[in-house]
Fold each of these.
Amino acid sequence: MSKEPVAVVGIGQTKHVAARRDVSIAGLVREAAQRALEDAELTWADIDAVVIGKAPDFFEGVMMPELYLADALGAVGKPMLRVHTAGSVGGSTALVSTNLVAGRVHGTVLTLAYEKQSESNAMWGLSLPIPFQQPLLAGAGGFFAPHVRAYMRRTGAPDTVGSLVAYKDRRNALKNPYAHLHEHDITLEKVQASPMLWDPIRYSETCPSSDGACAMILTDRAGAARSPRPPAWMHGGAMRSEPTLFAGKDCVSPQAGKDCAADVYRQAGIADPRREIDAVEMYVPFSWYEPMWLENLGFADEGEGWKLTEAGVTELEGDLPVNMSGGVLSTNPIGASGMIRFAEAALQVRGQAGEHQVDGARRVLGHAYGGGSQFFSMWLVGAEPPAS
Amino acid sequence: MPEVLKAPLVVEFPFTRSLGPVQSAFLTGLRERVVLGVRTTDGRTLVPPVEYDPVTADEIRDLVEVAPTGTVTTWAWNHEPRRGQPLGTPFAWVLVKLDGADTALLHALDAPGPDAVRTGMRVRVRWATERSGAITDIACFEPYDGAPGELTGHDGRFGDMVTGIVAPARLDYVYSPGRAQSAYIASLSERRTVGERCPSCRKVYVPPKGACPTCGVATSEQVEVGPRGTVTTYCIVNIKAKNLDIEVPYVYAHIALDGAGLALHGRIGGIPYDEVRMGLRVEPVWSEGGRHPDHYRPTGEPDADYETYKEML
Amino acid sequence: MRTVRDIAVVAFGQTDHRRTSDELSEVEMLLPVLHDVLDRTGLQTSDIGFTCSGSTDYLAGRAFSFTMALDGVGAWPPISESHVEMDGAWALYEAWTKLLTGDADTALVYAYGKSSPGSVRDVLTRQLDPYYVAPLWPDSVALAALQAQALIDAGETDELALASVAARSRSSATANSHAQLRGSVPQGDYLVRPLRTGDCPPIGDGAAAVILAAGDRARELCERPAWIRGIDHRIEAHSLGVRDLTDSPSTRLAAERAGAFERPVDTAELHAPFTSQEVVLRKALRLDDSVRINPSGGALAANPVMAAGLIRIGEAAARVHRGESDRALAHATSGPCLQQNLVAVLEGDAR
């Protein structure tokens, strides 16, 4: 028994911004879904099931919002699933949808993730008070900064590497019309002169808070054959989780991330990711996570990831472009951020990434993580159907 | 069994909701005492107007006015109003099909008692005295014995459209941290840090969660750790967070207490922030009445060798 | 319904459901249940191919609460795992699709809910349309009461019939040691008329877990696996005012897709937290008096929110395991007035 191959035939995003004051939550998700349908030249009636993901419900103050969003997503009379795996949720949501196709439950599935952070405040949503616990921090930057320091200590990376990533991603974002931050006057000096928030993390090395949604249409071989544009094919996909905190946890390079990547490479028949993968959209909410994930995902040996960044390998014109879209550093509707990585990977192999297209991208990795560096979801998409 | 720890937990936020064109027109209409519906492509009129047709999934924007009078399609008598509900005195929840509408609107009906309410009864909108463009601009419905109300002839275009609402939401919880964390908190009150050892892997968890997260078994053997420990890593916090009464800059550190299997989190004091380093040996400083150590300060011992704590990073 | 692999429920466990479990954290409440289902199959965490859970942050007011529950699983070495912000019945559905792909042969599914820290009637108002409905704070009992009145007006039931549903459920629950409300329970005063306290579910805390296995693996792990012959779920429009509250077309459609109407079932575990909702479901599922409805007592006997739907599947499966049922239907619901519904059909091998 073999799995049904899964293809991406439609992709839609909203223009990500700090606050989409012109639409409701339904209007926001609808816009991304509609664009994905248009890309696939399909209608609502062609969709068999809807799988939606987002990060904590407290962000918008709507509990289990898929109930309210059923109408806007044309889900009435259809199956609708709601995934929540913290920051990795956008990726996990896509992978849950692929199971529906791969397991031959449905032919064509709409998958979508969103966050409308302007409805509340991410700092509040991430730091609800917990009685009897000592409040020491607010927000995610302070949580991850000690891990960055540990990485620097472990590898001896020069402290400029983080700014190189931020400078690259913000310039890449200028080539992506959907990116939130379009800093036309960005310079490396400006990044390096930006205030130190959670030392060693500077302001310009952190992600913004965005309103945005991302949607994809996933389908089977028959659906792909009808696709008006080249599909992206899934060659491998996996999720891995480990506990939030435990004795022996490697917070810099978590085992769950390594295992997840290894599973994806095994499925896709990748022996040497550095040579066989053309580009990566990885979840980098703080710039230092680029070199950290380069190692975790097997693109560099332990302690060597920063050297790829420093040598320009991860630049748009480099040998292994990373975050061609501008990444999470330029766009962060939290629940959608993982799916944007997956969708941008698919755009690349479809040759539809526009100005941030990597020439000849045939195999691209999409990556997301969440929680306390504990939930990982990844897929590898290719321009050719998987060999079966 | 020791007394169960409990504390109130309030989750409260004034959510700012943008509306989109259809909801904006409906709520602006309520402010102006006009009720709008939306027409579907197959000619039904939905009130309240939704943005997407629940049957066809079409986007719909064709606004039409309906009367502020209508008929109750079902009801339920609420003798004990709860916080936030439209009326403070006993009332009926009703679904009302307004004259001219094909679907029903949920709201409250002010009536003297359940005997005065029945399905099929006629009602009309009672407008709130002060209206801001929200569903609560309809104060409630009231019994009405007359013909369908007059239309104003409005087309849904208003000056000064309401584009957003503020929806305050407060939920009250009583939090209890469970057995293991309650014991941990109780020991802190004696200025002792007590973790729990996993019966399987023998690692000591501080704070204990009642389960070893890698072995998936319950923990119960209590083990005192510290008081001294080693800073494994840290960051310097330069931005002041709201509701957090700590002067910046300060050092937020991971501290592996002697005997613990993993680091806990704390603030470092008693040393200039830019002199804190990985490997620094520290001890807790308690404040009068504080539940947790206020901060950790250097012990004066030589720094721990990187090899001794690198597995805890 | 034809699927590429046969998949069965091979073990089910649940906590005793209680009004409060404030001496236990969520993970402390969950842990014994996880051990229970592993012990029943002889499996260890490392043998499990996929893990999926269902819960909601809103119930106890803790963001990311599922990350803390994961501490009970023993996710080391790292595991293939997912979470739905839905009742555990949908976590089981996700796990079922994962097994269908052939990526895993076994799955652990769990769900938990602690209603005791908050006021669940008010908490559930946050599920409603955030522009037109949630600002009015209509609580879950009020919405169910609107549905009950619609049924009474349509002549489909009356208060006496509803009371008999309540009495039958709690009487059945006397045989269920995990149930929260058992035996003779007074029908009580109106909570929101026409619903009386007896028509409403108890509020409480609890957890449940299920193990799924495919093909021969299922036969190894369980003497009489409860084969999932079909499972499907459907959602309806959100607004109560556009729905016919006396019917449940989504339940009927899910049942059709799950093959429920192909042959009669002998047992049905229905997730009907309110007596009136059982009336709607029986009609939609065409269940006549020959079918044993909710032998566990159903959600009227124990309703740990987010786990109660999974428990229906687990209870139906357990009856198949014990040889008390050959073909059982299980149903789960989510959202106001049965907005979203899942139906599974479980069968035992011929004896």
Note: The CA atoms of residues 266 and 291 of chain C lie 5 Å apart.
Amino acid sequence: MTSGRPEAAPHQRGGKSGIRIAAVVLLLGAAIILYDAISISERGGLAPGEPGFFPMAVGVGLVVVSLLFLLRTTLMQDKALFVYAAEEQSETHWNTVWLVIAALVAYAFVLQPVGYIVSTSLFFVGIAWVAGSRRWIRDIIVAVLFSAAIYFGFTELLGVRLPAGILQGVL
Amino acid sequence: MEVFADLASGFANALSLQYLLFAAIGVTIGTLVGVLPGIGPAMALALLLPLTYGFDPTGALIIFAGIYYGSLYGGAITSILLNTPGEAGSVATAIDGYPMAKAGRAGPALATAVMGSFAAGIISTLGLTLLAPAVANLAKSFQATDYFALMVLAFVSVTALVGTSIIRGLVSLFLGLFIGLIGLDFLTGQQRFTFGAPELLGGIDIVIVVIGLFAIGEALYGLARLQFAKVEEVKFEGRIWLNKAERRRVWKPWIRGGFLGFIFGSMPTGGSEVPTFLSYNLEKRLSKHPHEFGKGAIEGIAGPEAANNASFSGVMVPLLTLGIPTSATAAIILSAFQIYNIQPGPQLFENSPDLVWTLIASLFIGNIMLLIINLPLVKVWVRILDIPKPLLFTGILVFGTLGVYSLSGSVLEVIIVYVIGIVGFFMRLYDFPVAPAVLGSILGPMMETQFRRALAISQGDFSVFFTRPLTLVLLLLALAVLVLPTLLPRVLPRRTATDAGTTT
């Protein structure tokens, strides 16, 4: 292996806890959607043909199937799913997942103020590092060329506007 | 026949030097993107959508057809050499393709895939040519209740037939329906599920859903497993062309796969998963060498690859004639239509016959381009697999972000695509099918429109859904699709016993 990180050993937690957390998060999300659907129905009317009917149907439906899914992970356990999830989870490097998600959020927020070329180059090098690449010079060269090529290709050839950001005066 | 005269005029349009060049570019870019591990046709189209903004509608659609065929072929390369199918449709190809490649027969495996795709593409595009005008004619008499029932059938079949669990399929479907409802109500203008954000008033574009679920979700999944990845890449070497014994074994599966793919593709079940697996099982049953299946039987590539390609022309039937997309790929093509203000449906064949027939002609041309450009270049395409994986997945994230940002110029939509991508990652991790979510988000609003239109016409009388024979038949069919898979094993106890023996 190219990366010598100690936490790279497979997680042996099994699929149960992760999937139960997913089921609970799903149910919470469904509850929020149902709550919003109720307020939509109060304003728009609930009868079929009125704006509230479909949101209500979706909200109720989502809560029902989320409950069923929670049931399949607790009381009526879906064994095949647990085996599948355990295998998938043991092959998932969770630190990478969280770091990539953090990088994505940061990228979205700096995209406009910092500009496309700079933020994309930084994002590219950062993700490559998180993913285990340790060849800095290659990654930086690729990142800068790649983001500059996209920037000029899109703004000059396709007429799609991308933010120049801090390079405003230079470009 | 009239359709052939129409098709000929389509060819006359598509055969201009400019459009031929577009088709060649499309096929090349499509292969380039499709050959990246984990990228299938739907994702390739979603990622490359921004590239077509500068073209006229016909040119853009020709590039699209090229990208589709190219990415299909690219997907076959990764399935066979890396055992990483990019989409459900090429899973069956990997079952026998990868063992063949390991045995040093990667060339014939790829040639079977490409030539089979070509043969099936011609069969199914002919099918589209003959069937589409007839369906469009028939569809003129369709009423709102019929459309509603058709979409119910599409939802039920994608949820019940694709994936392993109906509950998880329904979760995926309802999440998609929720996304589809976000925005202004089309009749009253009331805000729904906008959570106070003005950017959400216009709703969430299907391209965002697809890029999120496929591109961002898939790249996240790939990055997360990179540290443990133990992909055995097979080196490509040896002959490409089929020898005589192989040729004799593949032509029948090609033809059967072509018909299966077209027929199942044109039904509301949509997509390529069902026909490719049907074709695989059919070939296994009909083959004189059933013991070779799973170990590198060439029929196991010929049939499913043919079905995979043919299902695309099949999916174009409901898309062009009814305006109903039944697969993720079709959903992207529909949103490309919408960018150019083209509304597919029964009127499309009357209002823009030039566009339709040029598109159908370009499907033929895309198939031929694929055969003459891509097959000889296979050794070049294989080099793309040498790109270091961390850079590759990072590139997918950057392209996905670019696709969304260039579409809207809004940071909130970029955040939304990331959220959808993270949801997609967990759906992948816990075996939730994503196809129902994609279809739900695009068909949901259409279904609501037809439902409310039907009720407005009948002045709130629900009986319209049960008195019109066509509507009733479609709804009963949907019920059958939903109930039969759970009911049949109980009626046929012996099958449950064998199933239980194999699945647990």
Note: The first strand of chain B starts at residue 183 and ends at 184.
Amino acid sequence: MSGAQKIAVTVTAVVPLNDLVTRFEFRRTGGGLLPTFSGGAHTVVEMRDGDTPRMNPYSLMSDPMDQTSYAISVRRDDVGRGGSLFMHNNVAVGDEMVISNPVNLFSLDLRAKKQLFIAGGIGITPFLAQIKQMERLGGRWELHYTCRSEALGSYVDELTTQHPNEANVYYDDQDQRIDLKALLDGQPIGTHIYVCGPKGMIDWVRNTAAAEGWPREGIHYEEFLAPQSGKPFEVKLAISNKVIQVGEQESLLEAMERSGVDAPYLCRGGACGQCETRVIDYTGNFIHRDHWLDDAEHASGEKIMPCVSRFEGKTLVLDR
Amino acid sequence: MSKFEFPTSIISRPVYGTLEPRDGSAHLMIADATGAQAILDVATPDMMAKAHIIYIPKGAEFGHRLRALNPAQYYEGPSYAAAEQRIAKAFGDAKMGLQVYLSGSEGVMGQAQHAAMQAGVPHTAIQTEHRGSTARRMQCVHCKGITEDVATDPFQCSHCGLHLFVRDHYSRRLAAYQGVNIDAEDPGNVPEAKGIYE
């Protein structure tokens, strides 16, 4: 079975934070401790939405050393494929669910002398766990967190009360912006940047830091992509000897799973590289959306990441 | 001046490049002997306005030419050990955006790289260019003593006196290659010393 090891959990709390974000807390079903993790880790939550299985990655936001429970915060996406809506509308206290062991693709580099966290909106969640980790380690950190408005500022009160000197909050509707150049200027040597938020924010931080002479090894970012819907297409799986149809609302990875093919995966968001699949033959165009393959690999037509990327054309034969 | 081509080896062995100018808030350049030429090659007036050059001549006569580049700060000292406090201070006070340029012998570049890494600069973000001596800084894996400027293989540990085989196994933490006793199985059977790259 692909993916990280599974854990059977029971929902112990569902806490709406504001119009868009709800927190879900889990304990191990039947008791017992959960694994510790490191700040920045995510878990893949499995949902049984009628006939549609859904598996969405969410950053763990609870204390990484707290083995009694895990917490995630889910932002409702009304125009998404339905995973977050399912969490908001269908998951209740007492429900039994399956989540994956924590997997970290956004871990802290503990060689850093200082951690500079930059969050946009729901991108705050991995930092909540990382901040708890840094507090335990006694390391230097600083947070710059942009929210749309005070009403949508998830965890702002907790952050500014507990960490008045480290947590800085900016509200878009009050025209408050991070002065990034000034923020980067004068940071002590050995500072690492971590950015989690919309793609535009990640690009802005990466490009600005690079232009200021920051080494790319010290700039860490995480952006989970949700698979996007698209035109249905047909795929031939050479090893499994199957021809499958990828529907409009499902990803290629999900279509393979639905057809009983055990395809590897970990993050399901185009980031980890686990599902990389060799293309044997194709006539048509790839719609690459992952962060894993580089531009040359995307152009080569030799590889595809089935978790987020699609295909439009006549034939696609995969080595799976 | 032609540059020495080190033979390809195991992945542990450092490889050096050619210094190139990079955008940054400050430039720290550390060189010994003919490593000065690499700085002369890369220097631009803009870079020099924000540059700190630390130079260990070891008898080479480039000091006046480096000084003529008019860097913001210039230091010349007789050895890496003599420059070490200044290097530690330079890294300790440094801000992000600093670019690090190292050139010259493997021993000086390795020690300066270690100082940069201690300060939190990723080793992959440090530029290096080898010039001049191909002698190595070696650690005896038995007594842990460091012997500087080793040019032959095998060589005798300057601390414990064992005859050591010069390995390409390098430690960034120690800024030294590893030297292993060559006649442990058959004491006294020490091959004749040759130049490391002969």
Note: Chain A has three domains: 6-104, 114-222, 233-318.
Amino acid sequence: MELTHKSGRQETAAHDLPPAIELRGISKAFGPVQANKDINFSVAKGTIHGIIGENGAGKSTLMSILYGFYKADAGEVLINGQTTLIPDSQAAISAGIGMVFQHFKLVENFTVLENVILGAEDGAMLRPSLAKARKELTRLAKEYELNVNPDTLVEELSVGHKQRVEILKALYRHADILILDEPTGVLTPAEADHLFRIFDGLKKQGKTIILITHKLREIMDITDTVSVMRRGEMTATVKTSETSPEHLAELMVGRKVLLEVSKTPARPGASVLEVENLRVVDEDKVERLKGVSLQLRAGEILGIAGVAGNGQSELLEVLAGMQTATGSVRLNGQELDLTGAKSDARTRRKKGIAHVPEDRHDEGLILEFSAWENIAFGYEDDPAYNKGMLMDNAALRAETHAKMERFDVRPPHPRLEAKNFSGGNQQKIVLAREIERNPDLLLIGQPTRGVDIGAIEFIHQRIVELRDQGKAILLVSVELDEIMSLSDRIAVMFDGQIMGERRPEETDEKELGLLMAGINRKAN
Amino acid sequence: MQKMPKWADVALIPLINILIAFTLSGLIIWAIGGDPFRALKTMVTGSFGSTNGWGYTLYYTTNFIFTGLAVATAYQARLFNIGGEGQAMLGGLGVALVALSIDWPHWAIALPAAAIGGAAFGAFWAVIPAYLQAKRGSHIVITTIMFNFIASALVGYLLLNFLKVPGNMSTESAGFPAGTNLPTFSDMLAPFGITFAKNAPANISFLVALACAFGYWLLIWHTKLGYQIRAFGQSETGAIYAGINPVRIVVITMVISGALAGMMALNNVMGEAERLIDNAVEGAGFIGIAVALMGRNHPVGIVLAALLFGFLFQGGSELSLWEGIPRELVVVIQGLVILLTGALDNMVRGPVERLFLMLHKGEA
Amino acid sequence: MTMMRKILGATAALAISATAVLAEPAIIFDLGGKFDKSFNEAAFSGAERWAEETGGSYKDVELQSDAQREAALRGFADRGYNPIVMAGFSFATALNTVAADYPDTKFVLIDMVVDQPNVKSVVFAEHEGSYLVGVLAAMASKSGTVSFIGGMDIPLISKFACGYAQGVKDTKGDATVIVNMTGTTPSAWNDPVKGGELTRAQMSQGSDVVFAAAGGTGLGVLQTAADQGILSIGVDSNQNYLQPGSVLTSMVKRVDNAVYEAFSAGENVMPGFSAMGLDNDGVGYTVDEFNKSLITDEMMAAVEDAKAKIISGEIMVHDYMSDESCPSF
């Protein structure tokens, strides 16, 4: 009812349309932390509006307020010019707002169709809802290039397709305003392009899209307007055509940032890591690594590029001791146990392998633990942290404080729980723990995923510094820019194999992109 | 992210919960024609009004501290040990075997030996479900529950066929030798010139329970092992990342948990009955779940929650003994407290949090 | 006068902290509770009968836990109740320590012996009563196989089973007696479903008369026996009415009489040992309108003859608890 009323009004007031969303004086504090401060912001109907900002700048909080997850302390929200109360997500949905989260909220063992109608069923019986949804899905798929087989189980879908299901879910609920949080973080370049085409189609149909991202290039490519957030405040809203990436970056961090990593050519030393014919078969009997061989020397960074899910994670896990495998791995000439009692992560650490995992929420950190407890994570048996039978918590806290200062973790409070730090600061805690162990080999996965630009620069510098100290670094990242600018050598993985190796100065994104898609134009 | 001060979380909310439970109970007593205020007075004087009352209250409290700690230890690794009941039964068997094995010269020697016996048997009973969980994936909730039944049948069988004194009607073991009789509060306090009810069952194992609570605190928050248990409990993948062996942690945690439950037998078997009675645990293993829940898995909270349940048990027994309130109703009252402090915790938490947010905003 | 006593009694009950002026009797029920349809309930009905007939009042309590035994005993003694009756053998240990502290209070313990100067111990000759129903079972059986279902596996129940088996064998030498216990935990007293299963299992082995000495579990036995068209034998109270025409008889154990007598004697209860057997109607079998069609004159004559011979000592029924063995099994 409300929806038809709205669309009716939209047609009559074709010329001077009220903004799709307008926020007036929104403020939100979590205890002493002011996450949003007096935000005023409006998004014109039928446009793509980008929001960029460092992690912890308050973007997610703002969107959570808009979607009814948090209640603002002050201010009001206007949808299509009308003051609207959004106490919960149900209210947001009926106001025509759809949200696609960074971490998808899909039921893995339901089909696409079942996921789409979940929570939007009409009545107690499923059959009529399913039939209706099937028709609607076919229509949406045609209209917006959102092709997904409605009867596939979600767990069988690729990440890109899962994202389409999320978008379909929102559209099925008649969303006029779509909010997407870091939508391309998990996509291949081709999938990202496809997504942008979908955006174009949605825009043509008069939908409004709000895109939250770190990636300046995306902002430049597809948005009409861009707003910049910094430390809880909206610092600027500009037309995309009237700005430049450098300008935006400056607005975000309040200073000039070097997007290029400055580094000297590598001076590789002795061989540190030799991997031969590594194979991993997972629980479902699927071969995840199909005979990977590589070599890594002291003082160099080997970047592993590839679309997520092509075996990079398994490679890291095997080397870090989280996964058993067959084949051979030698560290400093010494054969490592890949299946037995000594194939665990602790043994690897003692042998000089440090590991910054891809997933810092589930692996790298215990979110419920305080910062100082996380600094001991994996190293809690270090004699320096123990006094007799007991752990020396005071010493550990002191050391954590020192590390936090050195790595510019904000706020530098060892007793604060990890979950209360922003993404970039969480990553710095993990880095502080792993890098300062002086490892021979650093395994580092997605070092800047969900990390703000200021922290990216800091993290990249640390990685290069470590290389210059003569350490071997294996970098896995789905960010091609990051691989290109950090690596001394690049290996591209596809379907559990290394498709080819390139030097960054001798290749370009196009060639790497083809390799990532499994096409090798140049024989090795 | 702090929604309300910590004191409100640990003290105010449980207090409100108890208050609601008591109000409801009062209404029920009033509805069946009793006088709720007199009932409350009977409960309070019966449990705290005399050294005899204290002696019973602390006796029950001791049981609940042990089982509460057992549940809490397992919970730190996110293992739900519902088998405290069976582990305490087996602990009783261990204590009885130790106590009956030789003619102990003095309780001070018998106590540590019995503690080891009870702990070992309790741990043994917990380690089988732990192993099945860690290696075979059998859910520990299911296996520990089943092990309660097996324990009950096993102890019953052994009592009947091996431990029972021939000619004795009750399924109970022979009385323990005098050298194993633990000093009661009356014995312990007499040297200080304090007279305590001579026949109250509270005994030195209360101090053992307090020592265990302190040990639990040290273990969980001040040792590597405790650190690893907590890390495993928060994230199993995280534990693998850190090189913490999940099988080892599950097994060790359950060993400690079962040992704590088993040591409860020091109190009820060795301290009170001075012989092994069939079904001697009487539900204390299950009360431990409520105690751990209410005590927020913190030793101080557990001791206080155990005291509350000790009061409920002793006060409740006074109610049924002298107020003519049926014992079923006493169980209802105890159930209400468990329901409100455990299952319905969020019912109170939500409004209190909102209240604090409002107050906070008022200040700002 | 009666009115006066009631008012006084009520006042005494109200002023619980004050010592009771009148020496009222008190009874403590065991963990099963006073409405267990069996032992405790029999004790309760005895107390009620006394209250009804004399107009007196008494205090009763149901235990929740073992630790309460001593507390309840001391509590009653401190408050001046006299005598204090305990229903159940589990009180023996607690009573042994408490009795000496209250020499002026009389205690009556049912089903167990405690040797103290102020304790009266009442035990029943369950084996003798069981012998008699065994005689009836043997004669009523057409298949020559009868059976027994006990509650929890304790010596007391074996005492029932052993007397029953002897009665059967003495009557019909080639008869088979199947004996099953429901369990080894107290829950065996209250598992009618399992009682029914055991009954069916025994039927499949040929049994056509089943004696249930199993508390609440027995109700399932009686029900199943009636459903399947075989005979059953009740226990403790007269259970003939539960399944008319199917319950052959009931082996009654007059716990109610024991309580009634103790209450009636008041403070003048005679300490010592009291055996309730066939001679003083402490145990027996029942014949009423629900089962008289099942008992022939021949059976009646045989069972009365056995009863007389037991009383006279001509037949010695073996007491399982004297040596924990049973020659008739």
Note: Chain B has 16 helices and no strands.
